[in-house]
Amino acid sequence: MLSVAAFGVADLSESIAYAEQALRGLGKPPPESRLGALRAVLGASGRRVVGLAVPQRWRPVLSREASEVVLEASLAWNQLSTLYFFAGDPTRTLAAILRGLAAAERCGADAATVQSYANLGFVFGTARAGTVARHYFGQAQRVARRRGDTRGRALALYLEAMHCVGLARWQETRALGIEAAELFESISDAHEAEISRTIAAHGFYYAGDVVGADEQIEHVRRMASRRSNAQHVGWAKFMSARSLLARGEAAQAFALASAAKDLIEHLPDTLSNVMLDGTLARAALHCGNTAVATAACRRLTGRLNRGEWPATGQCVDGVAAAAEVLFWLRQAGGDVTPELRLAMQTLRRFALLFPIAAPAFHRARARLSAAAGHEAAAQRAWQRSLAIATRLHMPLEQALVHLDQASLARSAERRTSALAEARAVLRPLGCELFVELNAGGRPRDPAVG
Fold first, then answer.
1. Which of 29, 154, 6, 139 is closest to 95 using CA atoms?
2. Residues with Cβ < 8 Å from 135, sequence gap 6 or more?
3. pTM for the full model?
């Protein structure tokens, strides 16, 4: 399928166009609008409920020719569900998943059914319907194992790993992501192996294992470079930049994130661009380049304002970074209040869906309260952020609480105490320089745009 080939070289717009064209050619046109997608979701859901009540023996048997058409439609819908997801369109994503599953079950295509089940597991997991999510992930694994479908098993594993990122289940994220990558590598599917290792890297990074994250990202960089996949090379660059920031190496981080921007900015890939722009904004701020920091935040919030919704836990860091950078830009006199408000609203929405977002959200609330002079409210929010980050084993988030407290402290004594607490968290991680990088907090360049 041309759509798969285009996706393999990171051309999402072409990939979407080819998949939609294939469906039209099969007489199964995709919805043209979000309202149409919502109608498709409701219709497919209703038909699924009715269909489950109909015994298998009463269902019509397709001819060979009709079965081939339905199978092609199922494959195209499954491809589109992935593309719509990366484009930040959850309604179309769900519509495509449901139509793909219906088609796969109708023609008895196990491979397509596995992908649909795994996709549904991820969607229901995002909706915090954990029991339903586990059911569909389990169904995907059972069908894949029954038919010896290595690719299907690996796909279900990495989607479950993505689900675990949002839940801050780091050990599962790492284990599932690496197992998926190894399965994909065993069948020479480098593209999906790179995605799987990227997911595993989040499981290392958020748990404070920056070295482990970098090992996974180096795998991605090498494989993607061999395939000339600009999107995945860009992922490796901005995720390496994120690690460098954790080590306190802002200049190198800024250079890598800027290089990643050149590779990714033009792609219709909401998830990648949100993660990239958050990292770039944070690196630029620490290097004193507030013009670049402001532009990166405005690109990110512009996507949010256009309704692009990066519905995955690994995007939390990008949105949280934007909220942080925009706060300091506003403190320095920048005209960024609308962007800051939107970043906060998005972070709140993330916190309702993903436990991973809660520490960053409460920390952002604390900054705003402290800046407004509401010291007691700020301290309550910081303590809540710290308690959640500790419970979720997110040491970098714990350190950021202390660093925010130091930057906004009203006394030298409190500032010194907060910096010492941050060092105590970061020293075992090999990230003590992160303290020096973040201690000032505020942008040094007065030319805030």
1. 29
2. 121
3. 0.83
